[in-house]
């Protein structure tokens, strides 16, 4: 699957099968997490077979069903955008392994998570992981013109980057971001709102994959 197919295949999934992650997938996820932590200085952790954070033993907790695996997104304060960027990199790695996911800022029991915090670190949010009962469904998307200065005749890479960003998960599907291009550089900005800085990191990662460019694209 190429990157755009991978991005198109990902949707939030909140109901999971009672099936542990395969050993090979756990190893692959851990390797990717280690690479992300090394590059970013974050302290992202994979937690498996832990039913408490999503009350997986109870009939239903929030919208989640049978979630026993998750990523704990941990880092120093003020790292919201990085949390988005690297969290989504791991989400798409999970998707490539056939593991479904959902970013979760609110609807879990923070006090019940099995997470290790170093000094000065905090738990930003978690990402539910598992084999979905379904593959989820496409979210409603804004138009390219709502989120960018794209106009006819602009380069394909710019359009592709924005299209990939519009397929990204954002909190409450708010899509409060904006791209502007100046030659071969792009500025990405978050509007005011809940978790929009984290959303910005997520959409910047999608943009890079869609445009097939690295992070030197950003102004
Ligand atoms: C930063 C962030 C926080 C989120 N928090 C929650 C949450 O607390 N509970 C939940 O059910 N979904 C949560 N979501 C999932 C969004 O609702 C979902 O990504 C959005 O509706 C788009 O749908 P999609 O992921 O299927 O494309 C969150 C997503 C992001 C990016």
Uncertain segments: none
In terms of structural class, how would the helical and strand content be classed? alpha+beta
Summed up, the domain count is 2
SS element count, helices: 6
Q: What ligands are attached or bound here? A: flavin mononucleotide
SSE run: HHEEHEEHHEEH
Q: What is the name of the CATH superfamily of the largest domain?
A: NADH Oxidase
CATH architecture field of the largest domain: 3-Layer(aba) Sandwich
Q: Rough shape? A: globular
Estimated share of beta-strand residues: 15-25%
Highest-level CATH class of the largest domain: Alpha Beta
Q: How far apart, in Å, are the first and last alpha carbons? A: 30 Å
Main β-sheet, spatial strand arrangement:
1-2-4-3
Instruction: Tell me roughly what share of residues is in helical segments.
Output: 25-40%
Note the main sheet.
4 strands, antiparallel
Radius of gyration: 17 Å
Mean pLDDT, to the nearest integer, reads 97
Q: State the CATH topology of the largest domain.
A: NADH Oxidase
Number of strands: 6
């Amino acid at each position: 699957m190429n990157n755009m197919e991978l991005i198109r295949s990902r949707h939030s999934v909140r109901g999971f099968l009672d099936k542990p992650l395969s050993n090979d997938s756990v190893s692959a996820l851990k390797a990717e997490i280690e690479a992300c932590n090394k590059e970013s200085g974050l302290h992202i952790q994979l937690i498996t077979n832990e039913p408490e954070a999503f009350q997986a033993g109870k009939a239903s907790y929030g919208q989640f069903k049978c979630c026993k695996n998750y990523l704990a997104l941990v880092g120093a304060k003020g790292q919201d955008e990085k949390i988005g960027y690297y969290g989504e990199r791991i989400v798409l790695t999970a998707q490539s392994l056939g593991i479904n996911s959902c970013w979760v800022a609110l609807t879990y029991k923070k006090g019940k998570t099995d997470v290790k915090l170093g000094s000065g670190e905090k738990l930003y949010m978690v990402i539910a992981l598992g084999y979905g009962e379904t593959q989820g469904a496409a979210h409603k998307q804004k138009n390219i013109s709502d989120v960018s200065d794209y106009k006819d005749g602009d380069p394909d890479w710019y359009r592709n980057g924005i299209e990939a960003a519009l397929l990204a998960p954002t909190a409450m599907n708010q899509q409060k971001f904006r791209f502007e291009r100046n030659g071969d550089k792009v500025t990405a900005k978050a509007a005011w709102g809940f978790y929009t800085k984290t959303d910005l990191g997520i959409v910047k990662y999608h943009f890079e994959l869609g445009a097939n460019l690295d992070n030197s694209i950003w102004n």
